Structures are given as structure tokens and as C-alpha cells.
Amino acid sequence: MGEFAVIGLGRFGSSVARTLYELGHNVLAIDKSEEALREVVDHVTHAVQVDSTDNEALRAVGITNLDAVVVAIGEDIQESILTTMLLKDLGVKKVVAKAVDEQQRKVLEKVGADLVIFPERDMGERVAHTLASPNVLEYIELSPEHTIEEVNVPARLEGRTLGDLDLRSRFGVNVLLIRRDTQLLISPGSDVQLQGGDVLVVVGENRQLNRLESAF
User: Fold this and answer.
1) In this predicted model, what pLDDT tens digit does every residue of 117-148 receive, in sequence order?
2) Domain boundary pick from 93, 117, 141
3) Count of domains in the chain?
4) Are 8 and 31 in contact (CB under 8 A)?
5) What is the DSSP letter of 101?
6) What are the distances in angstroms from CA 5 to CA 70, 87, 104, 137, 179?
7) Which residues touch 35 (CB under 8 Å, ≥6 apart)?
8) Residue where one domain finishes, among candidates 117, 147, 169
9) pLDDT value at position 210?
10) How far is the CA of 46 from the CAs of 37, 62, 190, in angstroms?
11) Which of 2, 165, 181, 199 sits between 20 and 30 A of 49, alpha carbons compared?
């Protein structure tokens, strides 16, 4: 069981807090707004009204003892940056911060954010990839150049082996695992035959994955 805090309980922050709590973790929800806290109080472990730019107030709620803190402050960029900086100064092990643009990302990274995310942009990319390539089920960006994708195996490839497809030589991508119903075939060998409903989890450069999507 992990110990987490989410600061800023807008749509994104409240979703993160609720999901972590549903997964069985302890979640401390923090916001300046009493109304925002009322919305999540029954779906988190603790909910406290705190000004996240007050380092003494953050220390008082035990913020330094947590595994990670998510800074989900949306509209007030200055508050988001200052909160992130204070959390790192206090010694928080991992700070995940939400950004609205590249400029904010750069500043958040400079003040110590361990991970910066773009919820709206990332969801937009997932939707675009799903629309452009119906066989792509999930899309996780590892870096600007590399991605992990879940790809549906087309019916025409049923019965073929991974060796037959030779995805590494043809497309420069690696198959990490095959999801088959409730099974996970990890690091599958070249002799594994594909079945209907199989999902390949592949990793590679974006340009190579685009070629694979077109072929599939």
C-alpha cells in the first residue's frame, strides 16, 4: 500500500485521488477550496484545506513522509511552480506535476519536478492514434522518440508465428509481451503462434511504429 498526496482537486486531480484510493492506497487530498474537498472527502483517506504555497502548513500535514505527491493545480501556474519547488525543498521523494504548456514544463523541471505530465495533450494524442490506427488500443509515450503501444493482431495474421512476422527486422520494433485473454505471455519466443484476439505490446521509435500501424 502506497502513501500519496494530490494537491489541486480539479477534474484531473480528483480523478487521480479517487483512482489511487480505489486501488487500495492511502490518499491525502489537499486544496484551498472547501467545496473541492467536499467533492472527494468520501473517496480519499484524508482531505485537508491547506495553502500549498505555505511550507509550514505542508510540513504539518506530513507531506514529507509520503511516497509521491501529485501537483495537479491547473489554472494558477505560479502556484503550481511554487508548490513544486517547496515540495522538493522539503524533501518529498517524488513530485509529479501537471503542466499546461512547454514553458511551464521547463520551469517545473528546473525547480525539481521528477515527472511532468500533460493530461489534455496526452489524451489528445491517444485519441488521435486510435482514430488514425484502429488497431492501436493504447499508446504510452516514453520519450519524444519512443513509445509503447498495444496493437490488435489482425485476423489475417492468425496462425502466423512471431518468427514469420519478424517485426524487429522489418519494422525495428520489439514485442515485449502478448496479451491473450487473461494471460500475459512475457518475452514471447519466435515460435509463438498468434491467435484471434491477441494484443501485441510493442516498443520502438515512433517512425517505426507508424510503419507497423500502416502494415497492420
Assistant:
1) 877 766 666 666 655 655 666 666 677 677 88
2) 117
3) 2
4) yes
5) S
6) 6, 11, 21, 30, 32
7) none
8) 117
9) 81
10) 10, 12, 50
11) 2
Q: Which residue's entry shows cell 522489418?
A: 170
CA dist list (Å): 182 to 59, 161, 164, 179, 185: 44, 20, 25, 7, 10
Query: Measured between alpha carbons, how far is 103 from 105 in angstroms, rounded to an integer?
Result: 5
For residues 147 and 209, is the Cβ–Cβ distance under 8 A? yes
Beta carbons of 147 and 126 less than 8 angstroms apart: no
User: What type of residue sits at position 46?
Assistant: H
In this structure, the answer to whether residues 93 and 162 fall within a common structural domain is: no
Q: Name the pairing type of β-strands 26-31 and 46-49.
A: parallel
Q: Which domain holds residue 43?
A: 3-117
Residue owning grid cell 522539503: 90
pLDDT category of residue 101 using cuts at 50, 70 and 90: confident
Measured distance CA(78)–CA(193) in Å, rounded: 54
The answer to whether residues 164 and 172 touch, using CB atoms and an 8 Å cutoff, is no
* Of the candidate ranges 23-32, 62-71, 206-215, the one whose mean pLDDT is the lowest: 206-215
Q: Are residues 85 and 146 in the same domain?
A: no
For the residues 76-100, what does the mean pLDDT come to?
A: 92
d(CA 31, CA 100): 19
Domain co-membership, 130 together with 207: yes
